[in-house]
Amino acid sequence: MKVKIINNPSAGRTTLQKYLEVIVGRLVLQGIFTTVDKFDTKGKNDAFDEVMKIKENQYDIIVAVGGDGTLNEVVNGVMKSGINTPVTVLPAGTVNDFANHLNIPYEIDGICKMFGNGKFVDVDVCKVNENYFINVAAAGIMTDVPLKATVASKTVLGKFAYYAEGIKEIPKKLLKSVKYRFESDDETFEEDVLIFAVLNSTSAGGFKKFAPCAGLDDGKFDVCIFKRSDIFDTAAIFLKILRGEHINNSNVRYFQTDNLSVTCLQDCGIGIDIDGEDGGPLPAKFEIFPSALKFFIPEKNI
Ligand SMILES: Nc1ncnc2c1ncn2[C@@H]1O[C@H](COP(=O)(O)OP(=O)(O)OP(=O)(O)O)[C@@H](O)[C@H]1O
């Protein structure tokens, strides 16, 4: 395998990055990796820019070492440059939703085994306005500046978890709902919403069953809308996400589609969050590109 590694040295707790040399060394000795070029990112968009330089057939695989944000930049690079090079991710981030969904191992032996007997699968890629995403795009819940400092997670879904957990301490006004119009070929409706998420995989914000019906190759994305409800209902819904039972709650709207437009009906300044990174402002047009990316996964995964 001719391999391009895109390594984010600062992602997560930087544990896996320390073993990267051992992993690569072992795979080279085993003859599985024949050429290895490693690039270390220094900041935002470095991974994307580096992938944009890759030519068709230059590598057999691009390995993102980092979290969902690094993987997202690599996917955007592949999609926007139009190359067909397969991608995989080694979970070196904080949450690693996509890698967890695919059961990609965290330790040296498991990772080496994956490259020895893994397989390539075709996965759908989603797009919101100009940005591609492979896992989740979400929006909602405005925060006041002082609260932001106390919220550990930078992601919309992480903040949602924080609100639900620390629900008693949160002033009511911060659970702010916003009115949106959702339009797809199937239906159009307006709703007062706390957050909404559009998912390709089942996992988001560390919850493995956030979109329990999602499939990576079903040609559809799963939309999960949390309607305005009081803080106690929100807390109850949060607990149900762990078991994937929130989708039956009357304050949650859950459906699958292959096209969606979302417009904010208030002057709210809300933006889209793609795997924890800024995805630009609303309105948002979501599209899906069925089986558009080859992904390398362990032999036994889902
Ligand atoms: N050398 C670096 N130092 C600091 N930040 C970096 C560096 N390289 C990339 N970044 C930033 O890291 C972001 C991606 O982080 P990534 O999502 O991979 O890790 P994470 O946030 O720890 O994991 P997760 O998203 O799974 O929770 C990039 O968008 C970029 O802004």
TrEMBL record:
One of its GO terms (biological process) is phospholipid biosynthetic process. The keyword Oxidoreductase does not apply. This is Diacylglycerol kinase (ATP). Its cofactor is Mg(2+). The keyword Acyltransferase does not apply. InterPro entries: ATP-NAD_kinase_N, Diacylglycerol/lipid_kinase, Diacylglycerol_kinase_cat_dom, Lipid_Phosphate_FormReg, NAD/diacylglycerol_kinase_sf, YegS/DAGK_C. It comes from Maledivibacter halophilus. Keywords: ATP-binding, Kinase, Lipid biosynthesis, Lipid metabolism, Magnesium, Metal-binding, Nucleotide-binding, Phospholipid biosynthesis, Phospholipid metabolism, Transferase. PROSITE patterns: DAGK. GO terms for cellular component: plasma membrane. Belongs to the diacylglycerol/lipid kinase family. One of its GO terms (molecular function) is metal ion binding. It holds the Pfam family DAGK_cat. It comes from the Bacteria. SUPFAM superfamilies: NAD kinase/diacylglycerol kinase-like. Residues 1-132 form the DAGKc domain.
